[in-house]
Amino acid sequence: MERLQKVIAQAGIASRRKAEQLILDGRVTVNGKRVTELGVKVTPNKDKIEVNGVPIDREEPAYYVLYKPTSVISSVKDEKGRKVVTDYIETTARLFPIGRLDYDTSGLLLMTNDGELANQLMHPKFNIEKVYVAKVKGIPTREEIKKLVTGIRLEDGMTAPAKAKMLSFDKKKQTAIIQLTIHEGRNRQVRRMFEALGYPVMKLKREQYSFLNLHGLNPGDARALKPIEVKHLKELAVTKPS
Question: A GO term (biological process) for this protein (predicted)?
Fold first, then answer.
């Protein structure tokens, strides 16, 4: 038997965290009975599980890397009719993004229907590195770059130690290109870190997620992960940081 929220996540309905909320909201039934408490265990191939009145079916797990363009929502739907990340992948699997990238941020985004893996990868304790390249207005000093490394105080607390280096700068245009590697996932974190130093971000791209990168992809392109890549991600999701 397995926990109900895990079964819902593995069916590609939602991430495990969102599956838990669906249960708490009373939107899940098991064998016709509404479940509103976490911890219930079910037998997937025996019990009839419905979410919002619709029976769930287990899908084959699917894993993709998407090169998200700018002006795209990191969601499966948008009430305003804007482009969403699922528009760029042709599959019958019910994919959702692992984490998110801002509307104006481009770059690498993982997509899956494996809610269990998504929930694990998004947990902050695993310290998965994400590499960003930002074009900022102004040219930070070496001391300011060091502040990015040691930590920046934001309204929700100090950021964790990071890696940062200046890739290039343009004295005439007063702009700089900076690579920043973080392992946290706070909302708009990279942009807020630079803004706290007084260097607003003009352009932002996520180039790498752990060992995965965008090589061979253009904005809007996606590719299925290789089995060895999926295996490596699952290993990352269960290996505690040193």
Answer: enzyme-directed rRNA pseudouridine synthesis
